[in-house]
């Protein structure tokens, strides 16, 4: 497959995945097109060797499994997350000021707030409703038109605007939505959009989880298209690459793609990495296809390996001093092994050696990242999943700029690099 074809598919996935629920639905759709069978957690599972299956939880987390024809002895796990920092509507968001209906928001995750000003914003998420017959249903909503904006205050009225002034998320971040509108107008518009997108009439709105989205589409940037610029690269880029690797593998080995929600807010939820989702699924699989019992499950996990994929901080040309001098990953320089002595990343020398060997096997350059000793370090699902399961783990990622901004930037070549390495990982017969 050519790099350009893969990148076009990536841009389409990013555009159509404004929320974790949309990303999960789009991944599920591709899995089904590739022959994967959907499982329901409330059903009794009947699994067969050689099958390909997937399951979701909360419609925002997904686990896909490629089951081997041979006895289940080891798993090649790729871990990602579906959520991204941003602005989410409060339950009662309608508020009025200066003749405008505005929508109150909560900040989800560690979002960079300044880039949200003066952006054309759409609205997306899921809505739960009740039909006339009493049936309750949840549906996805994605309004792909500029609906709102958070206008900046003119510099003439704020002479300190360029001097690092703090932004108050409660008082300064409510998007302007409708002139002269009030609360009933929001409900009326939601019902109209439900009718337009789903043909739903005569329904009662019960609840929603909605977020604002940037309407600027994903794009290749640079004279030679060297860059990918988009919202939600952290971490939909890893979700896409992990899915490409799973579907691009030879299908012989036991492999798992897990895409958890709620990483950006700590992973402590039923469908987050700190929750029981992955453990629940793997125990059910092992009970049918592996050595049963606790001992059999522990042996399976210890023979397995997890590559946690979450983007890494690339060396910024305007701020080179923000990196350790010997650990400044470059865009288009290959995937990055992320290391932290305090276990904010799960990498150790044994798991890093496996990844370096994979990169060598497919002729892909590899880089390393360590945070400066005088700066704090973020984390990923890697240490959390390793803690919950005990699986040997490493953290890697594609280098990017502007992490947690409304628009982030990564290298186009790195998409192909990491995909090739993860395909080699999924196809690898021996993991030790």
Protein architecture, described:
With 432 residues, the protein is an alpha/beta fold. The protein has 2 domains: 3-84 and 231-427, 3-Layer(aba) Sandwich (Aminopeptidase); 86-214, Roll (Aminopeptidase i, Domain 2), CATH 2.30.250.10. It is 29% helix and 27% strand. It has 10 helices and 20 strands. The protein has helices spanning 3-15, 20-33, 169-172, 183-198, 233-248, 277-289, 293-303, 349-361, 381-389, 412-427; strands at residues 37-38, 52-57, 61-66, 76-81, 86-97, 100-108, 121-130, 136-148, 176-179, 204-214, 219-221, 227-230, 255-260, 305-309, 312-313, 336-338, 367-369, 393-397, 399-401, 408-411. It has a 9-stranded mixed sheet, sandwiched between helices. Helix 5 (233-248) crosses helix 10 (412-427), helix 6 (277-289) packs across helix 7 (293-303) and helix 8 (349-361) packs across helix 10 (412-427). The chain is globular, with a radius of gyration of 22 Å. The mean pLDDT is 95. Its cofactor is Zn(2+). Belongs to the peptidase M18 family.
